[in-house]
Automatic annotation (TrEMBL):
This is Uncharacterized protein. It comes from Xylaria curta. The lineage of its organism: Eukaryota, Fungi, Dikarya, Ascomycota, Pezizomycotina.
Length: 324
């Protein structure tokens, strides 16, 4: 058998050079699957999603041909945006921030010779970063994996606690803070999650980052951020009410995946994933039944108002990554 070579696409093929996707996690896979015939190794996909684990799922389920696999760039934005009232599909910036980007290396763990494709992928990913950098208001910052992960983890941790428990109990954020039993769930999930993070191989060379996330001060800042939510409701609650899947696989599920790779316990995060999926499944069954005179179960604060402006998690946690 000769050496593996990338398949050459027709010159007139209508392929995408770059795709920037920022939507609900449940919509990403079907969206990219529908565009699969216009994506190849020359395409760079930037995923602006608060969770992690999407790239691995896309490689497994959509882009399984390693020689035609697109390049991936992960993004984390601290810009604060809001919708423009009465103007569909329009957004306005409430507070400027930064757009942190990380180019995912191609073929990690692969055994065949692919140096030319790796170089091609790096060059194309860097080209997208440079394109985005040309828009000054985005304030683009390219980061290595460890620094990028350090920016992602606070949101990842908070969502895996607050939104998961909100769906499980059908409650507002503030009810978690004031409910003794909900706080026990919070503490159990948090302790297991931090134990997993402390064993991440990529963090072992930067022990001060491990100390930051495992210190009592970080736990306290998460609690302060939870209290600052006041009457806010998890956006997952609305999705459950509509019978939509929520992205628990990219939050608690990500920690489960990493724990399995490291041989660590993950019972609380695994249970959290199953509880959230059970709530979604139950709601979907309710909506499908559509019995006359039967009101679907809606006592889980689906429509409770009184939401407050959401504070900035980055401001609350003060990550202090300068010089890291």
């Amino acid at each position: 058998m000769g050496p593996l070579r990338p398949r050459q696409s027709p010159k007139d093929a209508d392929f995408f050079d770059n795709i920037i996707i920022d939507t609900r996690g449940a919509a990403i896979l079907p969206s990219l699957t529908a565009l699969r015939h216009r994506i190849d190794r020359r395409t760079t996909i930037c995923l602006l999603h608060p969770g992690l684990g999407l790239v691995e799922q896309l490689i497994e389920q959509v882009f399984d041909d390693p020689l035609q696999r697109p390049n991936f760039v992960l993004g984390h934005s601290t810009h604060k945006l809001s919708k423009v009232r009465d103007i569909m599909f329009s957004m306005k910036q409430r507070k400027p921030g930064a757009l942190y980007l990380y180019g995912v290396p191609k073929f990690e763990g692969s055994t065949f010779d692919k140096s030319s494709l790796v170089y091609e992928g790096m060059r194309q990913s860097q080209h997208l970063v440079q394109l985005l950098s040309s828009t000054e208001c985005l304030n683009v910052v390219g980061l290595p994996w460890v620094r990028f992960l350090s920016w992602k983890l606070p949101t990842l941790i908070f969502t895996s606690l607050a939104d998961t428990i909100s769906v499980a109990l059908g409650c507002k954020y503030q009810e978690i803070y004031h409910n003794h039993h909900a706080r026990i769930m919070w503490d159990s999930l948090l302790e297991e999650t931090l134990a997993i993070i402390s064993q991440f191989p990529e963090l072992q060379e930067v022990p001060h980052r491990i100390h930051y996330f495992t210190a009592h001060s970080f736990r306290r800042k998460l609690q302060m951020y939870l209290a600052a939510q006041r009457a806010n409701i998890s956006p997952w609650i609305k999705q459950v009410k509509m019978g939509n899947n929520v992205p628990v696989d990219y939050f608690n599920g990500y920690f489960v995946q990493r724990a399995r790779e490291l041989g660590l316990t993950h019972e609380y995060n695994s249970m959290a994933v199953e509880i959230v999926k059970a709530r979604v499944s139950a709601r979907q069954t309710e909506l499908r039944s559509d019995l006359r005179f039967r009101v679907p179960y809606m006592t889980d604060t689906d429509l409770i108002g009184g939401g407050q402006p959401i504070p900035s998690l980055e401001d609350t946690l003060e990550l202090e990554l300068e010089g890291f």
